[in-house]
Design goal:
Length: 174
């Protein structure tokens, strides 16, 4: 594809279109400013809150809107939005839980790789910017197919609760 002034768009780059997010961009805010799901989830039973594991300062939770099967997040219990606000004990447990998530996911799902990361602030793409959370997304060769492009649908081969049960059961062996 030819762009202005002779620049050519590389076919190596893909775009993800998320028009539903424009309302937050225009408002300059994001969802969940007064009702944080990461503060609410630990108050629920694990099954209802989609919690895989509870640590001392942080917990592991299934992503309600996963990018892939087994997509989990590590969240501190304390409500704060930026990584540099984490206390040392929180930072260390988030790192330890992330490593354990990788071990458990390898055991129960055999991914070929992982996407791991945090979006800091609404401007950086955090859907829940007020509460720090780290994504751990298992990846497999060919895990993307035509469904998102053709039907605006992501095929998830496993239910969230089934994934949560598998991960929870394997957690203590990791």
């Amino acid at each position: 594809m030819q762009l202005n002034k002779g620049f050519e768009m590389s076919s190596e780059w893909e775009h993800i279109w998320a028009p539903h997010r424009v309302e937050y961009i225009r408002a300059g805010t994001g969802p969940h400013e007064t009702d944080c799901p990461f503060c609410r989830a630990p108050q629920l039973e694990d099954k209802e809150g989609l919690i895989v594991f509870r640590g001392a300062t942080a917990f592991v939770i299934m992503n309600l809107y996963p990018y892939n099967t087994g997509h989990v997040m590590v969240c501190p219990y304390r409500h704060f939005g930026n990584y540099d606000e984490a206390e040392e004990v929180e930072r260390d447990e988030i790192a330890q839980l992330t490593q354990t998530c990788m071990k458990v996911l390898r055991k129960v799902a055999s991914p070929a790789g992982f996407n791991i990361g945090m979006n800091q602030g609404f401007i950086a793409g955090a859907g829940i910017a007020g509460h720090l959370h780290q994504h751990i997304v298992p990846r497999w060769q060919g895990d993307s197919n035509f469904m998102p492009v053709i039907a605006k649908t992501k095929v998830m081969p496993e239910l969230l609760e089934d994934s949560r049960l598998l991960l929870s059961a394997a957690w203590h062996d990791a």
